[in-house]
Amino acid sequence: MWRRPRVRRLSGAGPPWQPRSVHSPTVPDRRPELQRRALASIAGLPAPIRELGEVFADAGHELALVGGPVRDAFLGEVSHDLDFTTSAHPDETVRLLRSWTDTWWDIGKEFGTIGARRDDLVVEVTTYRSEAYEVGSRKPAVEYGDTLEGDLSRRDFTVNAMAVRLPDLTFVDPHDGLGALADGVLRTPVTATRSFDDDPLRIMRAARFAAQLGFAVAEDVTAAMTELAPRLGIVSAERVRSELERLLVSADPRRGLELMVDTGVADVVLPELSHLRQTVDEHKRHKDVYEHTLTVLDQAIALETGPEGPVPGPDPVLRLAAVMHDVGKPATRRFEPGGGVSFHHHELVGAKLTTKRMRALRFDKQTIKDVSRLVELHLRFHGYGDGAWTDSAVRRYVTDAGPLLERLHRLTRADCTTRNRRKAARLSAAYDDLEERIARLREEEELAKIRPDLDGRQIMEILDVPAGPTVGEAYRFLLDLRMERGPLGADAAREALLAWWQARPHS
């Protein structure tokens, strides 16, 4: 998978999202190159799209391709989300789309958006509009606009405020989005303060686009993010979570997360990440947990696989687990008498904090469960290098990880950020050995399908008891036995079960 090259931080330089001297005369003008890319991409628009423009034009309405698809065309990328804006109001848009295709939907009609499909093409057509949040409201108020230029002025960033009129393919760029694209800088069409005050979610979108596009962020934009970050409190958790998810699966999520932390946005959205900076120790008794976390994220991403591999990237569960794996450290930090520092049980505290935060952001139950479990298990491997793990311990490791095992492999490896080459090599070799043992046991015992040697029905027959809690206790006893000794066989398991039953106190 192609990834945009990471912007390396130079000595003495500011954050990677801060603009450099992009207007230096030694920097070549990229506009001609971008225009050539866009021309080739837009000229290749499918014929039905041109036809759609003619349908609206014949009815006396304007139609323009807008936003992401236009931006992506200049970057030489093909966008599969075709967004249009029009002078037609929603009811008229429905009528015109019905003459173009039989498949359409009005689920976004409240916000002026109508969707349609024709063969493999999916389009969304939105009436010219402006929107803003009323005081105390979590839902933006929408008002229809009159002109394409007015619609573009209410867009989030100038790189998304470019349009191509159809069917004549006229390029419209009233806010020099092309210049911002050439410079690689996020700017807003109107003042950043006004833009973010109208729609606070754009604060999150700034962080997301910094990560997705690898762009710097204009100084007035970062200033407005810092000033208005508390306004994110009026935005629904679902919309905030959606932007965070997009940031995490972008080309360079570290860039976006650093921007969120440095502007105080993370204090509102993901305070557990911000709090990691509290563990910075001026006496250097332990590593910088915040920087360590970002490095773990980078390394976890590097361990993702292609589509045919066990952890196809981008993997949001692995990436979020990397971000959250040490969030329990601030609450568990203790300075020991000998001058050391401990974080006892920070993985358990971190798992609880992760669950709480993800619930607040309205993640789905399975994702919450998976990420929290990875945080809980991320330290389990440590100590394996001492050679003390039995086959039973390996079985428990695999069973506890369950379907998350491949992600846990990668999170554990990514968690090694030591600069001590010998220590890093020793940890890597130990984990190689663990994976080899897992593979060997899996081949011998079908490790991923470990079950007791007797099932619930057999337990009830042997003990002559009905279904209930007693059967569950017996099942867990046999599972522990299976973990400890490996496969026993039905006869040996029966003898062990009866011995356990006789030793068990009966009322």
From TrEMBL:
Keywords: Coiled coil, Magnesium, Metal-binding, Nucleotide-binding, Nucleotidyltransferase, Transferase, tRNA processing. Residues 424-451 form a coiled coil. Residues 1-30 are annotated as: Disordered. The keyword Cell membrane does not apply. Residues 285-446 form the HD/PDEase domain. Gene3D superfamilies: Beta Polymerase, domain 2, cca-adding enzyme, domain 2. Its cofactor is Mg(2+). SUPFAM superfamilies: Nucleotidyltransferase, Poly A polymerase C-terminal region-like. Its EC number is 2.7.7.72. SMART domains: HDc (SM00471). One of its GO terms (molecular function) is CCA tRNA nucleotidyltransferase activity. This is CCA tRNA nucleotidyltransferase.
